[in-house]
Write a structure and sequence with these properties.
Helices cover 70% and strands 0% of the residues. The chain is mostly helical and 225 residues long. The protein has one domain (6-193): Four Helix Bundle (Hemerythrin (Met), subunit A), CATH 1.20.120. Helix 8 (129-146) runs antiparallel to helix 9. It is elongated and about 110 Å long.
């Protein structure tokens, strides 16, 4: 069972991941200015790169850190997309494309936060390669949209495709973990119902037949002669 310890909140990588929460709160105030928006996006991108690096470098990877990283990413993405949509920097269609991964993963996040059984599933919830690529593309696409770059539409489309693939991989991982957990619980229940096998009794030689004398042991000295 994953060990979610509150003291892990103070680990360096988890503090870096958690820093995206105040940045998410600050982004609506910066959305009106492209320069300020890019500054907040840059700070969030740095924390997103450093939290994984410090977790590996310092040996501080933890189950709680994986959850904090995912929640912080989704909060920041929701704040950025909502703010840019309200400021008319993004069109509704572009915002939906950029939020493809978050929308598809939302049921998984709600399940982990609200279901006790989901939090004790024995598997890692850290980002895989597709998830990291989708996050990088989303940051790049948002920066391109804010900066009004020519290749912004291409990055938005790539973000949507990669985000859908990443969300699909997380769904497959979670469903496999649920299946394996159900099998393990059933096997444990069966093992508790089946009584332990009794220790077999030692074999007893059959009694001699009628008229037959039991064998007389021969002393070792006579055997040698």
């Amino acid at each position: 069972m994953p060990d979610y310890r509150w003291r892990d909140l103070l680990l360096v990588p988890n503090l870096l991941s958690g820093a995206r929460v105040p940045l998410a709160l600050a982004f609506p105030l910066a959305a009106a200015s492209p320069a300020h928006s890019l500054g907040v996006l840059g700070a969030a991108g740095v924390t997103d790169m450093l939290d994984g690096w410090t977790a590996r470098k310092l040996g501080q990877a933890s189950p709680l850190g994986a959850v904090i990283d995912g929640v912080a990413d989704k909060l920041f993405a929701a704040s950025v997309l909502g703010s840019l949509l309200a400021a008319r920097v993004l069109s509704p269609a572009t915002a939906l494309l950029l939020a493809t991964r978050e929308l598809l993963e939302l049921p998984l996040a709600v399940r982990v936060l609200t279901t006790p059984k989901a939090r004790v599933v024995e598997h890692g919830r850290s980002a895989n390669t597709l998830g990291k690529l989708a996050t990088a593309l989303e940051f790049a696409a948002i920066v391109a949209v804010v900066a009004r770059a020519k290749h912004a539409k291409v990055l938005v489309a790539a973000t949507a495709l990669c985000g859908a693939a990443a969300a699909g991989s997380y769904w497959v991982r979670e469903l496999r973990a649920i299946r394996d957990g159900s099998r393990a619980r059933r096997a444990l229940a069966v093992s508790r119902r089946v009584p332990a096998l009794a220790t077999p009794a030692p074999e007893v030689p059959p009694p001699p037949s009628r008229g037959q004398l039991p064998p007389i042991p021969v002393p070792p000295s006579r055997r040698a002669a």
